[in-house]
Write a structure and sequence with these properties.
The chain contains two helices and six strands; from the N terminus they run H-H-E-E-E-E-E-E. With 92 residues, it is α+β, with helices and mostly antiparallel strands. The protein is globular, with a radius of gyration of 15 Å.
Length: 92
């Protein structure tokens, strides 16, 4: 299906884009938790730094006592004292 068809379908069905695409979605809860949906892989994991690869870029999470929890094939939860989050775009 072409992208234009997706626009028509999601408007009619009122579907969020992350449901039918690989676009990641990040849900941040305070400074203690981030859930990332539609991730591809974990590139690097340390207690103070996590790098997560997505279909459109890399999400870097910096903090203290970071742990990975509730991982599925599509979702990952990072908990700990989150200091900063930045995104590296890898596609145009």
């Amino acid at each position: 299906m072409k992208r234009n068809n997706y626009n028509k379908i999601d408007k009619i069905l009122e579907l969020p884009q992350e449901v039918y695409s690989n676009i990641p979605k990040a849900i941040i809860t305070g400074f203690d938790e981030i859930i990332i949906e539609n991730f591809k892989s974990i590139l690097e994991y340390e207690e103070f730094f996590v790098r997560i690869n997505t279909h459109i870029g890399i999400i870097n999470i910096n903090g203290f006592g970071l742990t990975l929890e509730n991982m599925t094939d599509d979702d990952i939860k990072v908990k700990g004292k989150i200091e900063s989050i930045d995104i590296e775009r890898t596609i145009d």
